[in-house]
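Pasting as-is:
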Amino acid sequence: MSARKNTHTVGSVLRDAANDFATKEQPTSEETNAFQELFYTLALNCDPTDRKHVANALARGLYTPRSIAYYFGLDSLEIAAPVLRYSPVLNNRDFVSLIMRSEFDHIRVIAQRDDLELETVNAIIAVDNDNRVLLEIMRSSERLMRNPEIRSALDKAYGIVRHTIEENPTPSEINMGLLGEEDITDLSEALLSLASTGGKVGRNQTRLRASQSRPLNHVEGRLLRNAKDLNFSAFAYSVERECRLPSKFTLSTLKDKNAGDLATILASLDVSRFIASRIMLILIPDFGRDVNVFKLVLENYEKLDHTECREYLTGKGAKFGDPTQVFFKRAQGHQRQADIKRPTQEASRTANAA
């Protein structure tokens, strides 16, 4: 009984403080600091009902501390939703970070915003499902579609901007997004057959199909989808979501056409040789110019040591098997790690004493 009463008391104090802070026209820095300190002291001891009330009170606030908004963005969906949907204090970097750490339903709420920047849009595209639910949500926003760069990224992902190249497309044409998805698929599958059996590349050749190999896991499916969209940023965010490898490293790998590092990334994520070869053909199409080089790449991919690949990428900032990359469990109390200021020892003692 005493524990429940204590939780109720703590929750009531925080609710009253949040209501008071939210009604201030323009809180002073002293008032903001005082509220932050109180929040960090009491938040972890509040039940979901109290956290939901506080989140709703602060969701639209122009002066809500960013770290508190971010904290609520990682909470359960019913608590996080109003903050993710309406908070004016979360910025582009915050959204990308939240997308990398959140479940699909949380990201669906972020996708409904009409003030997203290109980097956030690419991060959302990277984690979309096979039905392209998030893509449809963003394409329904008139404001987003008025941004030329965002519209281009969304149209490309949707498959609207596709142009068929009759023969011998150049690497620059592929990188510009002028090669249609079906052409890419035909090219990669024809080269796979050629590398396996010897023969001529052509539309009438028998092609090895993905259905003949093992089913794609969710990582392979997402990476292949991002590659087919020819969206380097989305591909890089997909990699970062899986192993925390900084997206800048993957983007640099793709822009430099570094086949070795790309193969290392794919091998570290247990991508099969068949899917890896298709991804590399799409993202580094120079492989398709020489069948012998292509065969050599396939042979070397098979020899890559999974552990050594992960060790190499760990040195570049990746974190394989790190508990922080796993979605936070929605256990009662929701005491999870978040990138926010933590209570000081003195504040913790004060909370315990309360």
